[in-house]
């Protein structure tokens, strides 16, 4: 039987971010369960207190979290009565994961205050934001309790308890204050934002600009180029988002400018690393196959490019990233394209 005196949280996904959030919440006194698609990762968390594949040599406090594998879903049903559910699997796997766990969620999660997405991407087949995907596939009891957590949150830095901020967003204002209190602590400060469209689009599109920033690094360019990409990339994020009803101020905030800067400059950024390796001549398929973790920006690039073509929105940096990844365009030609475009006003 679950200990009802301690609120239980279920984190779906045992990657770097899902595990980091699990440890943060366990530190606050919640009883945290982690569902892992990878049985070997679940066993390692339980038996060794580590997750070397995703967190390196970081060791967990004893008994801080308990992990389940895919074969243990029946066990979860008896043990877990989640106060909160967090989806921390890559965006392209959200739909199937939620569908595979549907019966458990419907039976055991009726009292959950929210289902929070910690993924940053756009579903490539449907071009839906993650909250929209969850609204389609979650049981009725959770459809109006969906939220998104986003911001400049490099897992390794949060594990080291370095000060960071994030934002939690939802169409349901009633759950935002509760979620803010759940996630916030002395080193992780969470703000609320009711513009979930803008928050999710920022989280998805900034990964594309980070690939461009990585290409810049791989080409040996310096600070001027990086700053130019970040500022013009932010303009493309806002231009795209406004077509979907996002608020301009969101792009200047934590989920927009904040996350964009971090993802473009951090050496721990997977998307920036993809760009750097592309600039050095590596093929995108070999880059993806060699990475333990998924760089969300690769699939998001195609989704956003397709969406921008349909809407006839000019997004030159995103177009270049798309051409380099999917059309194998020469990187130097893409730089020439950006620099020799017709002159225009900044805004």
Protein described:
The protein has two domains: 8-194, 3-Layer(aba) Sandwich (Rossmann fold); 197-339, N-(1-d-carboxylethyl)-l-norvaline Dehydrogenase, domain 2. Helix content is 52%, strand content 11%. It has 18 helices and eight strands. The chain has an eight-stranded mixed sheet, with helices on both faces. Strand 7 (164-170), helix 9 (173-183) and strand 8 (188-193) form a beta-alpha-beta unit. The radius of gyration is 20 Å and the shape is globular. The mean pLDDT is 93.
Examine the coordinates and then state which fold CATH places here, giving the name of the CATH topology of the largest domain.
Rossmann fold
Can you write the helix and strand succession as a string?
Answer: EHEHHEHEHHEHEHEHEHHHHHHHHH
Question: Helix fraction?
Answer: 40-55%
Query: Over all CA atoms, what is the radius of gyration?
Result: 20 Å
Q: How many separate helices?
A: 18
Oligomer: single chain
State the end-to-end CA separation. 60 Å
Overall mean pLDDT stands at 93
Q: Given the helix and strand composition, which structural class is it?
A: alpha/beta
Main beta sheet, described? 8 strands, mixed
The CATH superfamily of the largest domain is known as NAD(P)-binding Rossmann-like Domain
Q: Number of domains in the coordinates?
A: 2
What CATH architecture of the largest domain do you see? 3-Layer(aba) Sandwich
Strand residues, percent:
5-15%
- Which CATH class of the largest domain is shown? Alpha Beta
Quick structural summary:
This protein is α/β, with parallel strands linked by helices. 52% of the residues lie in helices and 11% in strands.
């Amino acid at each position: 039987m679950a200990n009802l005196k301690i609120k239980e949280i279920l984190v779906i996904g045992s990657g770097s971010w899902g595990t980091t959030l699990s440890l943060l919440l366990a530190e606050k006194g919640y009883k945290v369960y982690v569902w892992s698609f990878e049985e070997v990762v679940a066993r390692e968390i339980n038996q060794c207190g580590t997750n070397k594949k995703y967190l390196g040599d970081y060791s967990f406090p004893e008994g801080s979290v308990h992990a389940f594998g895919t074969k243990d879903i029946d066990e979860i049903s008896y043990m877990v009565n989640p106060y909160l559910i967090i989806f921390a699997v890559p965006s392209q796997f959200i739909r199937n994961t939620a569908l595979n766990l549907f019966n458990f969620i419907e039976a055991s999660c009726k009292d959950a205050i929210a289902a929070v997405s910690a993924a940053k991407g756009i579903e490539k087949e449907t071009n839906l934001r993650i909250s929209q995907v969850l609204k389609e596939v979650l049981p009725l009891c959770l459809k109006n309790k969906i939220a998104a957590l986003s911001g400049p949150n490099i897992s390794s830095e949060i594990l080291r308890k370095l000060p960071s901020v994030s934002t939690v967003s939802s169409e349901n204002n009633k759950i935002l204050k509760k979620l803010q209190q759940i996630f916030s602590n002395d080193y992780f400060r969470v703000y609320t934002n009711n513009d979930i469209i803008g928050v999710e689009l920022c989280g998805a599109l900034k990964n594309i600009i980070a690939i461009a920033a990585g290409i810049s690094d791989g080409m040996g360019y310096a600070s001027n180029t990086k700053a130019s990409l970040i500022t013009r990339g932010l303009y493309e994020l806002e231009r795209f988002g406004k077509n979907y009803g996002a608020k301009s101020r969101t792009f200047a905030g934590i989920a927009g400018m904040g996350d964009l800067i971090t993802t473009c400059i951090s050496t721990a950024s997977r998307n920036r690393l993809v760009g750097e390796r592309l600039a050095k001549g590596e093929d995108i398929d070999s880059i993806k196959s060699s990475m333990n973790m998924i760089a969300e920006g690769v699939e998001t690039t195609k989704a956003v490019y397709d969406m921008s073509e349909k809407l006839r929105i000019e997004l030159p940096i995103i177009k270049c990233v798309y051409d380099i990844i999917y059309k194998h365009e020469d990187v130097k030609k893409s730089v020439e394209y950006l620099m020799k475009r017709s002159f225009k006003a900044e805004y």
